[in-house]
Design brief:
A seven-stranded mixed β-sheet has the order 1-2-3-4-7-6-5, with helices on both faces. It has helices at about 5, 10-15, 20-35, 45-50, 60-90, 120-130, 135-140, 195-205, 220-225, 255-265, 275-290, 295-305, 310-320, 320-335, and strands spanning about 150-160, 165-175, 180-185, 210-215, 230, 240, 250-255. The protein is α/β, with parallel strands linked by helices. The protein starts with a helix and ends in a 6-residue tail after the last helix. It has two domains: about 1-105 and about 295-339, no CATH class; about 120-255, Trna Endonuclease, Chain: A, domain 1.
């Protein structure tokens, strides 16, 4: 089975498969791809295989071969970049000497020792990394004005709305005279409550506040649907949501969290081995489980195989924008202090 053909370019597939055939695929995709990363559908691929009669996949094979060939150059570049990042990590003043993408957590370790299926667990982990991390991490993530560690970090802060709906702020960071609230999202797409939560924080907590909505980048279309014209996407800087209930809410993507971790680890400030271990593993899982970046082993398999026929590899390739991953990795290698 070649799931890559189903997800990467629906227009091309529809020209090679009859309309009723594609409708069957599309219905399955709607069921399994809605509000979840592509790596999460690997366990369900047998369902799709069983739904098709023998021989129908052959209609997609010519398109598949063309796309494998077109991916070759991009995959070769990605492999070269991953080799280079490995050298950077070996030379950096950090306890870790391998790139976080060396380990494959999306397939070989799906059940792993960590419970990451619920947003609350991601939120708790991020709060820990912020609380115990160096000031450089706060600055990387929230801007130069937050160049110190927060005085305190709270989770699931209950905000009472008399006559309305109570809210819970996922993460609240307190600094001197100001604070940060973070609404943490991974699969949940109920974004509209973010501005209401922000308004309750401002009315019930003293000081100046910055608000952030953290979500996967692949959810950007859902974000646009949720806020319409209230969402501003400037050419430079982060997107933000205008609100008549509170100050603007800044959009933060999960890959910015992992990129901030990479930058801090590679820059070499004194962070301590415990923080490095927690942050490094969070970076690994954000990149593979949320940003859907390819681990090194998958890239090597794809660039050396004459035909990519693995169902797992196909789905991983389909869920990744290889050029985006290359640009991301080059940014983390290109900083002056760890070139």
């Amino acid at each position: 089975m070649k799931l890559f053909t189903l997800v990467n370019d629906t227009d091309s597939v529809s020209t090679t498969a009859e309309s009723e055939t594609w409708e069957e695929i599309s219905g399955w995709l709607d069921t399994y791809l809605d509000d979840r990363p592509l790596v999460d559908i690997l366990e369900a691929t047998e369902t799709l295989e069983g739904a098709w009669v023998e021989g129908q996949w052959e209609q997609l094979d010519p398109w598949w071969e063309v796309n494998v060939e077109s991916q070759g150059e991009a995959l070769a570049e990605l492999q070269e970049v991953l080799d280079s990042t490995g050298q950077v990590w070996q030379e950096a003043d950090c306890s870790m000497d391998e790139d976080p993408l060396v380990a494959d957590w999306a397939t070989n370790h799906r059940s792993g020792p960590l419970r990451i299926n619920q947003e609350e667990n991601w939120s708790q982990w991020l709060a820990h990394v912020i609380r115990s991390g160096p000031s450089e991490f706060s600055r990387e993530l929230f801007g130069d004005e937050f160049d110190v560690r927060p005085r305190s970090v709270e989770r699931e802060v209950h905000l009472v709305d008399h006559g309305g709906t109570d809210r819970y702020a996922d993460i609240v960071l307190y600094y001197v005279g100001r604070g940060i609230s973070i609404e943490v999202k991974r699969g949940d797409s109920h974004y509209s409550k973010t501005t209401h939560t922000a308004s309750l924080i401002e009315s019930q907590r003293a000081g100046n506040w910055e608000h952030f909505l953290l979500l996967p980048e692949y959810k950007t279309d859902t974000l646009r649907q949720s806020f319409g014209n209230d969402l501003e996407e400037p050419a430079e800087g982060r997107p933000f949501i205008r609100s008549d209930q509170s100050d603007d809410v800044t959009v933060l993507y999960w890959q910015e969290v992992s990129e901030a971790i990479r930058n801090v680890l590679l820059d070499g400030p004194e962070t301590g081995s415990h923080w490095e271990a927690s942050a490094y593993l969070l970076c690994t899982l954000v990149e593979q489980k949320v940003a859907q970046f390819l681990p090194k082993s998958t890239v090597e398999e794809a660039t050396t195989a004459s035909d990519i026929v693995s169902t797992a590899s196909s789905a991983r390739l389909a869920g990744t924008d290889i050029e985006r991953q290359v640009a991301y990795l080059r940014r983390t290698m290109g900083r002056d202090n760890h070139e």
